[in-house]
Every structure is written in structure tokens, then in C-alpha cells.
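User: I'll paste a sequence; please echo it back and then give the predicted structure.

Assistant: Echoing your sequence first, then the prediction.
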Amino acid sequence: MEIIPIIPIFEGQTVGFYKGNSAQKEVFRKTPLDYAKLFVSKGAKTIYIVDLDAANEGVIKEIRSQVDAELICAGKIRDMKKVKELFDAGIDRIVLGVSAEPIYKEAIETYGADKIIIGIKAKGDEVLTSVKRPFPLRVIDFAEKLTAYGVKFVLFKDMFKESTQVGPNYDEVDRMLRMTPLKVYTSGGIGKKKHLDTLKSIGTEGAIIGKAFYDHELDLKELLSLY
């Protein structure tokens, strides 16, 4: 199971949003670049960057130019122009959210299924999306149709869990792993080694961790030696 540190960027700063709420923002001490260098010094091979306000292209390019690690990038990527810009800038993989569904097939056909991860934000078993729907969209229902686009990887985050460190939403992760061929990365709520042990036991592809690293509740170097 991969252990991947996350760097959420908002207005050029490294931040955390409690349960995804920007009104409950925590600004961490170091710059995004400094954290990227720190994570690499601890052995990280992959770093997940989220451009929360889609206004940090310069920061991301700076990280790319100075950090020797695979970079996964997410944040309001909704058209092929932005996809191309990120790959041209040297980003290794990108995350497309639910609202980018119209470009899933084209992105995968153009860049390959290994380069495109579909991000599913949820509250419980309900997908969160800016697209208006007549009824709630369930996580498993959305996941089950992704293989038709050629999707191999998804990143699941329960927004109820973000920055809480109380444990991830195991149920939805386990359901996707049992009922689809998708490889699932998990984010949100990871704060203890026992959370990682459970995720590994159900077959999670990777665990994406933020606040627990910033608060020194978990040590990246130690986890990389264990998993």
C-alpha cells in the first residue's frame, strides 16, 4: 500500500480545511515547496498536490522544478486544456473530479488510464458534486460505471472525515473494492497506524495523509518503512 503525503494549497499557503469547510481553515507553518522538500527528505516517492483555489500554478511549477518525486495534481481540472497544461508542466498524474465526467474518456484515451485518477468526494455514501441531479448519487453507483470509461484508479475522500483523524470511511472503500475492479486510494480521517492497517487489510491501493503529518501524529519515514 502506498503512503502519499498531501499538500493542499490555497492562496499560495499550505492549508487544511476542517471537513472541507474553507471557513475553518488552518494555515500550516511551512510553504508548499518546503513541505514537498521535507516529504522527499523523509523518503516520499509520490506527493499529492491539491490546488484548492485553482490559482497556484506558479507554486506547483516551482515544486516540480525543485522536487524529485512523482507529483499527482488535483483541483478544479475540468477541461482538456487544463489537463494538457498540467502534463506539459511535468505533472505525472492528475485527478479529475465528478464534475469532469464529460472528459474522462478523452483524457484516458489521450494520456492512458495509469495517468488519470478519478476523485470521488462524498459525505457518507453520497457523492458530492456541483452538478445538479434530481436525486442523490451514491458512491457505489458512480464507481460501478467508471470502468466503461476505461478508469482504473479512483481517489475516495469522505468530507465528513477530512482533517479529523478519527478514521476513514472504510465501508465505502471496501464496497468499491469488492464490487468493482477499481484500485482505490483513500483520503480523509487517517490519523493512526491502526487506520492504515485496516485500509491495507481491505486492499486499499494507497493512503493519502495530510493533517496527521503536519501535526506530527504520524511520521512519514516510519510509515514508509512499514508499508
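The chain has a mean pLDDT of 94. The chain has one domain: 2-226.
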